[in-house]
Each structure stands twice: as C-alpha cells, then as structure tokens.
C-alpha cells in the first residue's frame, strides 16, 4: 500500500469544477478527549465559514454490525467478543455500510470530521494480538477495509496522544457522570490501552494510509493552527 495518498481537490466535470471535501479523522485511546477536540475544531472551522459534517465509529445506534460489536463488548453473544478478527470484521462492515454516506458528505461539505475510523480497527486488533504496526493484523486490515471494501480515504489523521493514566482517569469520570457511557471490556483493560497507544504512535510515525499529525492531549490545543492545517489540504 502506498504511504500517503494523492487526492485531487477539484475535478472538471461537464464544464464545471466540483469541489471535494476533506476527510479528517481523530484517533486516540478511550478517554483521550477526541470528542472535545472534534468540538473545538468544528467550532473554529464553522467560524471561518466552512460547512462541517460529523461522524463517529462504531455507529452503535445506526448499524446492526456496530450494535453487535457493542453487545459483544458487554459479554453478549457467547465468545464473539474474544475473537479479534470477528470483532474487526463487524467494525469493518459498519464502515463499509457508511461509505456511501461519507462520500455524499464529502461532496456537500468542506470538512467531514470523524471520531475513529479504520486505524482504530488496526490499532486495537494489533494490540489485542500483541503485534505492532508492522504485523500481520494491520496488513490484514489494509487488505480488507482499504483495498477490498475501498472505504473513503482520509486526508489527515489526528492522533490525540495522552498518557494512559490520563485517558483512564477521563474514561472513569465519563462513566460516573454520563449514565449511558459505562466502560466496556476494552476501555477497562489498562494493559490493552497501553499497547494500543503504542500501535497508534507507530501508525502515525509511518504515515499509515495518509498524513498524520500527533496532538498533545494534555496541553491546550491551538485550534486556529489546527484549522489552518486542515484547510491547507
């Protein structure tokens, strides 16, 4: 797979130029602050007059595959939750089902902003198997989601990097304050979270599938600078 992706921003069709939006993905551990980052970036982009569409994976309320993922993470469906590849296929099918809608959003918005995407599948599955970003599992995710399912590729992936202790504390606080956000088996496994963070860092370092930008999730984010980077794509 090529590292990075060259994407035409404008195409000539029937005598007019058609703009294609930018697909921006936020990745990070559970409790890293992805939703807060997305809110801040969206606000800055909208302030500048850009239209923004939001999305998040897994789509537990919108897709049957994602619903099964959520249930399996809470010990339903027998040993399904123990199957790394089984859970990854369900997550991949969720994104495949969403692909047409993502393409439509890219045609009608300046920016499409996603909380988690394909890299989450790669990072969590590899971490569960004690592999790194160069292992067989990440290569399998590439073949399945990127090549076979051909889901829309990101223009930029943002890795919100925080210490494992910070992410865990935030996840615990969210569990206490939000009645619908009980932590699942992945979120409660600190060693898995640690390994997952290491794989994310490796994916970012090798510019897996697209350019990446690592953001310090503890320091204050400069949303103006981040928006500049997004709009320059």
TrEMBL record:
Gene: tmk
Keywords, alphabetical: ATP-binding, Kinase, Nucleotide biosynthesis, Nucleotide-binding, Transferase
Protein family per UniProt: Belongs to the thymidylate kinase family.
Native source organism of the sequence: Saccharopolyspora taberi
SUPFAM superfamilies: P-loop containing nucleoside triphosphate hydrolases (SSF52540)
Pfam families associated with the record: Thymidylate_kin
EC assignment: 2.7.4.9
InterPro entries in the cross-refs: P-loop_NTPase (IPR027417), Thymidylate_kin-like_dom (IPR039430), Thymidylate_kinase (IPR018094)
PANTHER family: THYMIDYLATE KINASE, UMP-CMP KINASE 2, MITOCHONDRIAL
EC class name: transferase
Keyword match ATP-binding: yes
Reaction(s) the record says it catalyses: dTMP + ATP = dTDP + ADP
Stated role: Phosphorylation of dTMP to form dTDP in both de novo and salvage pathways of dTTP synthesis.
Domain Thymidylate kinase-like: 26-208
Protein name from the UniProt record: Thymidylate kinase
GO molecular function, one term: kinase activity
């Amino acid at each position: 797979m090529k590292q990075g992706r060259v994407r035409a921003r404008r195409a000539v069709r029937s005598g007019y130029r058609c703009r294609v939006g930018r697909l921006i993905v936020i990745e990070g551990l559970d409790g890293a602050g992805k939703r807060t980052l997305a809110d801040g970036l969206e606000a800055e982009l909208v302030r500048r007059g850009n239209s923004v569409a939001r999305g998040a994976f897994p789509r537990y309320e919108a897709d049957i595959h994602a619903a099964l993922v959520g249930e399996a993470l809470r010990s339903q469906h027998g040993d399904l939750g123990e199957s790394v590849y089984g859970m990854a296929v369900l997550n991949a099918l969720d994104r495949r089902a969403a692909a047409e809608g993502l393409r439509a959003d890219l045609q009608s918005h300046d920016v499409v902003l996603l909380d988690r995407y394909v890299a989450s599948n790669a990072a969590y599955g590899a971490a569960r198997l004690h592999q790194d970003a160069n292992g067989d599992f990440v290569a399998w995710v590439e073949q399945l989601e990127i090549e076979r399912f051909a889901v829309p590729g990101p223009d930029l992936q943002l890795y919100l990097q925080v210490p494992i202790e910070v992410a865990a504390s935030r996840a615990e606080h969210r569990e206490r304050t939000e009645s619908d956000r009980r932590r699942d088996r992945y979120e409660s496994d600190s060693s898995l979270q640690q390994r997952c963070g290491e794989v994310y860092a490796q994916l970012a370092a090798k510019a897996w599938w697209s350019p990446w930008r690592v953001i310090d999730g503890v320091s204050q984010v400069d949303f103006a600078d981040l928006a500049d980077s997004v709009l320059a794509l």
